[in-house]
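Researcher: Next entry in the queue.
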Amino acid sequence: MTIFKSALAAGALAAVLAGGALVLTATSASADTACNRYGECWTVRDHYTNYPTNLRIQFHDDSWRATHKRHYHWRNDQTDDHGYYSHGQWRRFDH
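Model: Structure for this entry, 95 residues:
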């Protein structure tokens, strides 16, 4: 009976740890939306501070994106968010 309880406790602990890891992974996968003054929006993981000020970049969360999809130009063809869109062109930040 002791072996059964030990195995059950180990299994429960493993399930809790796996569930916790899944929650952490799902949370970190969330991305925000950045939009410029021209209505061009794209997905970002980080809020950079070196966007050109004349573009007036604003950041939005997932709930905003879901309700505003039809009113903006969505540009999500970049895999690296180290840049911005301006007049339909992707401009990468200088490193």
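Model: The chain has two domains: 1-30, 32-92.
Researcher: Noted, moving on.
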